[in-house]
């Protein structure tokens, strides 16, 4: 799957950037300063990720009783088998490997105002599965095992700002789900905390304004998944751009109005919640944890170097040896889930009665905790459906793939969780459909405004991490380049 290599992020050409607005320049660094700092952090640190056989994992092994791939401490996570039964018409029952990580980690962004302008403390962090080495992560991104120092390494920097009793003001605090296709019941605590303290600045961290962050969200593989999920939760009162940022772009104004809830929605929020509850009540999702060795009848093979499917689809489980000079532990080994192909997340949007609406679907994945969550209009790995009958292909997939360029409002490649996935990437699209767009009669889809979706974020298990990434990225459309 991968060869021994040094995972170094390429230096970024910053010459195409226009100067920042005055409000953004009041912060600790300009955009050009940021890229100089980011490239310097890349040069200052060395990263190496090499695929190894399972037998060379240190502290990890296949349990002789369960057959699952586990850590000797019983902490971190495990790779187990999952049997799933649903009532959907296509492939209603299957088995697959799944990542089981019952611990709830902390994803936190620290906010501080400089000259009245909110800034976020972000870090340049390497994860073993990152496609380009360093990416921008939240102030704190740590599992419970990591911040409890089960690994025996250094303390997690800035963690005290997110502990109970800290002097910061909590702006957001909620449990959010992660990839239901690859995790079993996985959730992390998303926190946004504002402080007035003088915060010592570590060399791998920098202060960025929300305007700057919006610009970075438009770059491929720059803002990691953990940053995007927390950024989607930042209260609109803190993050809403000024009207001048929208310029003369009518679509940008539509995003702003839909986010602020200043217009009428097709369905009120109570109707959206009732519809999702009905889907959850009618959708069957029976999950049974089994040993990895019991997945052979489902086409999965456990080999010395990987766990993979006989059809060459879905994903593999591999093992890697990692060296990273700026992590709490500088060398370790671990399993990673490696998708076979990139995914596609496409959100169809439409102005209805003058208000921008997004067409969201209620999706049920193998490892979801609460049966179904709201996600993008199209949410799939297209390669998995190459030989599937047309009537069972994802609804709206072909519409998204054939969208003309002038209808595409956002097109960016984002990486997914590099701590658990190897080179997992999705293409994130926002497509504004025509006024005469014909909807499917599939009852799993509803139109909702951005404000309605944002209002669901304080509650757990309503929006998938992929939809939250799209919402964070859509906010970048309100920042001119």
UniProtKB/TrEMBL annotation:
<feature type="domain" description="dTDP-4-dehydro-6-deoxy-alpha-D-glucopyranose 2,3-dehydratase">
    <location>
        <begin position="32"/>
        <end position="234"/>
    </location>
</feature>
<dbReference type="InterPro" id="IPR038153">
    <property type="entry name" value="EvaA-like_sf"/>
</dbReference>
<protein>
    <submittedName>
        <fullName>Oxidase EvaA</fullName>
    </submittedName>
</protein>
<feature type="domain" description="dTDP-4-dehydro-6-deoxy-alpha-D-glucopyranose 2,3-dehydratase">
    <location>
        <begin position="270"/>
        <end position="473"/>
    </location>
</feature>
<dbReference type="Pfam" id="PF03559">
    <property type="entry name" value="Hexose_dehydrat"/>
</dbReference>
<dbReference type="InterPro" id="IPR005212">
    <property type="entry name" value="EvaA-like"/>
</dbReference>
<dbReference type="GO" id="GO:0016829">
    <property type="term" value="F:lyase activity"/>
</dbReference>
């Amino acid at each position: 799957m991968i060869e021994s290599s040094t995972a170094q992020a390429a230096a970024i050409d910053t010459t195409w950037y226009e100067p920042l607005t005055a409000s953004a320049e009041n912060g600790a660094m300009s955009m050009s300063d940021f890229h100089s700092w980011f490239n310097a952090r890349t040069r200052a640190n060395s990263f190496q990720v090499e695929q190894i056989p399972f037998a060379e994992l240190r502290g990890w092994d296949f349990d002789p009783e369960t057959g699952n791939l586990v850590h000797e401490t019983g902490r971190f996570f495990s790779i187990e088998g999952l049997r799933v039964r649903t009532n959907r018409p296509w492939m209603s029952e299957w088995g697959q490997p799944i990542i089981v990580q019952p611990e709830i980690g902390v994803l936190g962004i620290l906010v501080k105002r400089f000259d009245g302008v909110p800034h976020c403390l972000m870090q340049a962090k390497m994860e073993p599965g990152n496609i380009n080495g360093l990416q921008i992560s939240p102030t704190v991104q740590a599992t419970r095992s990591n911040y409890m120092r089960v690994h025996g390494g250094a303390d997690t920097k800035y963690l005290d700002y997110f502990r109970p009793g800290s002097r910061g003001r909590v702006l957001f605090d909620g449990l959010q789900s992660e990839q239901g296709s690859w995790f079993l019941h996985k959730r992390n605590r998303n926190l946004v905390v504002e402080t007035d303290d003088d915060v010592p600045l570590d060399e791998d961290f920098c202060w960025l304004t929300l305007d700057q962050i919006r610009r970075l969200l438009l770059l491929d593989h720059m803002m990691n998944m953990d940053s995007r999920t927390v950024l989607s939760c930042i209260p609109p009162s803190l993050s809403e751009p000024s009207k001048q940022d929208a310029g003369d772009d009518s679509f940008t104004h539509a995003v702003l109005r839909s986010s602020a809830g200043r217009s009428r929605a097709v369905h009120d929020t109570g109707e959206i919640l009732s519809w999702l509850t009905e889907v959850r009540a009618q959708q069957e999702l029976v999950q049974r944890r089994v040993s990895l060795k019991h997945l052979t009848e489902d086409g999965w093979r456990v080999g010395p170097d990987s766990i993979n499917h006989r059809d060459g689809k879905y994903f593999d489980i591999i093992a890697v040896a990692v060296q990273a000079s700026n992590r709490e532990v500088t060398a370790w080994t671990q399993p990673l889930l490696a998708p076979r192909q990139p995914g596609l997340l496409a959100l169809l949007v439409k102005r209805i009665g003058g208000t921008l609406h997004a067409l969201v679907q209620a999706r049920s994945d193998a490892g979801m905790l609460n049966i179904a969550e709201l996600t993008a209009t199209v949410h799939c790995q297209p390669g998995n459906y190459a030989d599937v009958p047309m009537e069972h292909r994802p609804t709206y997939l072909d519409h998204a793939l054939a969208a003309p360029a002038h209808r595409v409002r956002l097109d960016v490649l984002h990486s997914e969780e590099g701590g658990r996935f190897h080179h997992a990437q999705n293409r994130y699209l926002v497509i504004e459909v025509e006024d005469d767009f014909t909807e499917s009669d599939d009852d799993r889809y509803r139109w909702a405004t951005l404000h309605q979706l944002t209002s669901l974020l304080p509650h757990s298990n309503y929006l998938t991490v992929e939809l939250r990434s799209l919402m964070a990225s859509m906010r970048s459309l309100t920042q001119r380049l």
